Amino acid sequence: MAFREYKIGCMMFGFALSFSMFVTIFLPGIDISSMSSTKVALEKQLTYGWETGFNYYDPFLQGKDKPIKVVLSKDPRTGAAIDKTNAYVFPAGTHFPNGLTHDNILGEKVQEVSRDKGRVGEASEEAGGVFLVRVDADDTPYIEFATATRGWTADAVLKASDQQLLAGSGKTMFVREGCWWCHTLLPEQTQDWQTFGRPPLVGDFNGESPTTFGSDRKAPDLLHVGSRNSSREWMTMHFFNPRLVQPHSIMPRYDYLWGTKDAEGNTIDLHAWDKEYMAYAAGAEGSIYPPEVPTPASDSEARMLIDFVLNLK
User: What is the DSSP string of the chain?
Assistant: First the structure.
């Protein structure tokens, strides 16, 4: 009798666990797959590129195989002035996000307009290219393959850009460094949004992998942090040593992401910097100001992470 009851109890527990996983994982997946991508989802896909995390294209999470987001104020082909435009450059060989390679990611209407009007079907990973996010007359967001529709090449766009953001590579740093243990990217649908910005919609996450919602908030939500604070100088100091801008911050330092050289090619001596900073923090005579924070090199992991955070708007 005891064994039979034990067996029944195990079966009931297994059923309860399976049902809970069905409700929490499978059913939301159906909701997401039935939703059309929002404009936000299209921008995120083209900013972050293919899957971020442990994969065979970037096994050590160094920010490889990612697109470059650029800001344009002139046509790269003609040189004519245009309204400020975000373009997404995929160098040849860079893997496309799932929305460009799977028919059931964007949503039927968005997929149709992206194919017929945006000509995304002409794009290939081997050749790379430039993409835009547009909205048609019916307020349907879609992806435009600007290399086909406008003749914009990757090299020309990078050369004509006003700003380049390595936000896709920066998301890899965000995942690798465990930032999501303390920071969420998911404002709650309470009075929380009045501080941290609008809560996301289900359609904002189509094609994004992983979503990096966060685990347990111990620090501010970051989904719209680039709108609240767009200062690159502040972010640079904050990541190098958070106590420079928030004396009681519990956030760890990320100075090691600077590497060995700064933007001018000078060697970064963290030991010497720490010694000078400790003298400043202790109020030593002559230490009126903290030491200057090195500017990250253009290919440094620090620059990637800062670009990612500033891009969150």
Answer: -HHHHHHHHHHHHHHHHHHHHIIIIIHHHHHHHHSPPPHHHHHHHHHH-S--SS-TTSTT-SS-S--EEEEEEE-TTT--EEEEEEEEEE-TTPPPPHHHH-TTSS-HHHHHHHHHTT-GGG--TTT-EEEEEEE-TTS-EEEEEHHHHT---HHHHHHH-SEEE-HHHHHHHHHHTTGGGT--S---TTTTHHHH-PPPPGGGGTT-SS----SS-SS---TTHHHH---HHHHHHHHH-GGGT-TT--PPP-GGGG-SBBTTSPBP-HHHHHHHHHHHHTT-TT--SPPPPPPBPTTSHHHHHHHHHHH--
